[in-house]
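Whiteboard transcription, Tuesday session. T.W. wrote the structure tokens on the left side:
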């Protein structure tokens, strides 16, 4: 074969896997449809949980990829403008997460892989896997000149996100899929506005809002919106007014908004996560809501399980079951978290009742050490034995 693993997609999943394999001398080729600038500029997730940090450390990548990322200290939970601080790393037994924006992580992983002599081909068009049930798989693609190329390999790692070709290349009927619409809308804006002191989640009768640092001088804000509303039509002044109400901070300064996006609150899982020589990794296999910040961490954890199985040569039959156990654990956590903070917004009688429940759930985190520890353990990321 031309290489051991063809990796489709150079996002967090593909680039984590590529680096793990490279560091253990397993050959791989990464095929990415977009150009380098696009991949390195895409802003999405922002947290490497403690477990993902351990994974990078095991491959000597902790310094190269996570250096400089501020370590998680406290989480601020504000209910009706009243702040309370939760020491999540301490509650997790001294396991802090790290704030590393996705584009920085991807830039660094690409840099490390290329420095190590890695084979990464951008602008690969019409990437198509073949012979996934054969003795050897093939992947074809076209380069920017339109020239066709073919690579033979032992394994194909489908790291090409939800809309990629990998999951679609598995014959229909072989996968079961599970989707869920949370019935919640999220509007997110990136603004030149001082970072909050701590990551901040706010629950109030005006709805949910959150603020996270994106470097020292920028913040990413999230605002829940009611179904049917279109926040892309909101004047910026309305966004700031809503943030002031929800964060209970009349003096919150309005900064320049540099990015606006609507985030789908949707969950999806495909089972099993492998078929023949194809292994789905990250968003290609599952989508999770941003609540709990597990999307990127799941991608890194999947990449780890696959890399270990290939490196150790112990067979890949357990890959799907191991990854699915963690996937469903995190789906449950993310749903629980979303429900907890989003039940506060509407003024109907049942809305008012649910709001009381949401506040009681949040309050429990500050009163019950076991409840707080369970929450913190999931925030830090869990170990999943095969
Ligand atoms: N051929 C080649 N590359 C492709 C194809 C294709 N047909 N389709 C998609 N890609 C590339 C995309 O351009 C992208 O760079 O695959 C990559 C997939 O990256 P992500 O969508 O970021 O998915 P993943 O690596 O699984 O990361 C998942 O990161 O932001 C998050 O929400 C995401 O948290 C989740 C995590």
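and on the right, the sequence the group agreed on:
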């Amino acid at each position: 074969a031309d290489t051991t693993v063809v990796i489709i997609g150079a996002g967090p999943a593909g680039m984590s896997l590529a680096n793990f394999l490279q560091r253990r001398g397993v050959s791989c080729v990464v095929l990415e449809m977009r150009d380098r600038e696009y991949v390195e500029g895409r802003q999405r997730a922002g947290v490497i949980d403690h477990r993902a940090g351990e994974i990078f450390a095991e491959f000597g990548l902790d310094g190269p990829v996570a250096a400089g990322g501020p370590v998680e200290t406290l989480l601020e939970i504000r209910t009706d403008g009243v702040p309370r601080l939760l020491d999540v790393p301490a509650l997790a037994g001294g396991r802090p997460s790290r704030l590393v924006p996705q584009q920085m992580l991807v830039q660094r992983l690409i840099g490390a892989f290329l420095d190590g002599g890695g084979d990464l081909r951008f602008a690969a068009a019409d990437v198509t896997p073949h012979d996934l049930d054969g003795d050897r798989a093939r992947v074809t693609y076209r380069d920017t000149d339109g020239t066709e190329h073919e690579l033979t390999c032992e394994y194909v790692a489908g790291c090409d996100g939800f809309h990629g070709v990998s999951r679609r290349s598995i014959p229909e009927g072989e996968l079961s899929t599970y989707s869920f619409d949370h019935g919640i809308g999220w509007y997110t804006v990136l603004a030149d506005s001082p970072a909050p002191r701590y990551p901040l989640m706010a629950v109030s009768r005006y709805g949910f809002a959150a603020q996270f640092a994106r470097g020292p001088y920028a913040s990413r804000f999230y605002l829940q919106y009611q179904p049917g509303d279109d926040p892309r039509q909101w004047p910026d002044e309305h966004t700031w007014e809503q943030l002031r109400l929800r964060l209970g901070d009349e003096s919150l300064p309005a900064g320049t908004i540099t990015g606006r996006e609507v985030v789908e609150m949707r969950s999806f899982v495909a089972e099993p996560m492998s078929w023949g020589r194809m292994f789905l990794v990250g968003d290609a296999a599952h989508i999770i809501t941003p609540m709990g910040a597990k999307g990127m961490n799941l991608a890194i954890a999947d990449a780890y399980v696959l890399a270990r199985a290939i490196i150790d040569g112990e067979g890949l039959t357990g890959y799907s079951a191991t990854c699915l156990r963690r996937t469903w654990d995190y789906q449950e956590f993310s749903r629980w978290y979303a429900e907890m903070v989003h039940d506060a917004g509407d003024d109907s009688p049942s809305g008012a009742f649910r709001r009381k429940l949401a506040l009681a759930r949040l309050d429990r985190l500050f009163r019950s050490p076991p409840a707080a520890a369970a929450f913190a353990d999931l925030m830090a990321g869990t170990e999943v034995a095969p």
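Someone added at the bottom: The longest strand covers residues 176-192.
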